[in-house]
């Protein structure tokens, strides 16, 4: 598994992939969401801590619960999307480290250190959210990641009684390419990178 992906795969993942705001009326099968998670969970996190917790909001009832937490500009596109993934991180992720990282007492690295817990959970949960986008694209889904919602309200609605905190949302489905705007520019290598 050391050969580069072919051009078609790279185009699907990056070069031709776009952020979608308009959606075709085509459902996403629940089994595809299981496959999506089974892919993203294999990507790396520090000490295999895997703090991401994802709620796939798919039913009409759940979408209506989510709706008041969305900024006005995000409501229509989110309600139209077949699925909205709430990407969150669990601030008690370290409770699972005995299972996830069995060759060291990794739980002791975090217990009682709130700053380290928060930083680690947020960083690695965000990474896993990015893996979710790549995995979704690899499976033929389009994505519409976004901020623009009330995190506290989402946490109360979907994570009450847990140590989970929402980070961002990703609408998932099959995008309507006829509604895409021209692609925005990106920074060149020399504007964003150095080789030292």
TrEMBL record:
Its cofactor is FMN. Signal peptide: none annotated. It comes from the Bacteria. Belongs to the nitroreductase family. HadB/RutE subfamily. It comes from Niveibacterium umoris. Its EC number is 1.-.-.-. Residues 18-158 form the Nitroreductase domain. InterPro entries: Nitroreductase, Nitroreductase-like, Nitroreductase_HadB/RutE, RutE-like. Keywords: Flavoprotein, FMN, NAD, NADP, Oxidoreductase. This is Putative NADH dehydrogenase/NAD(P)H nitroreductase GGR36_001765. GO terms for molecular function: oxidoreductase activity.
């Amino acid at each position: 598994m050391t050969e580069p992906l072919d051009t078609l795969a790279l185009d699907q993942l990056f070069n031709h992939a776009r952020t979608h705001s308009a959606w075709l009326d085509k459902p996403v099968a629940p089994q595809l969401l299981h496959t999506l998670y089974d892919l993203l969970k294999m990507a790396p996190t520090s000490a295999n801590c895997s703090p991401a917790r994802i709620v796939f909001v798919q039913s009409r009832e759940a979408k209506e619960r989510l709706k008041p937490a969305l900024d006005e500009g995000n409501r229509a596109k989110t309600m139209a999307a077949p699925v909205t993934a709430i990407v969150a991180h669990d601030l008690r992720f370290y409770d699972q480290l005995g299972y996830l990282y069995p060759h060291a007492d990794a739980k002791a690295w975090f217990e009682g250190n709130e700053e380290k817990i928060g930083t680690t959970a947020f960083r690695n949960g965000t990474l896993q959210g990015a893996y979710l986008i790549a995995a979704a694209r690899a499976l033929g889904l389009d994505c519409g990641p976004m901020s623009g919602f009330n995190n506290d309200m989402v946490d109360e609605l979907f994570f009450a009684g847990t140590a989970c905190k929402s980070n961002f949302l990703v609408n998932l489905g099959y995008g309507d390419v006829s509604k895409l705007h021209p692609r925005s520019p990106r920074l060149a290598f020399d504007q964003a990178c150095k080789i030292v």
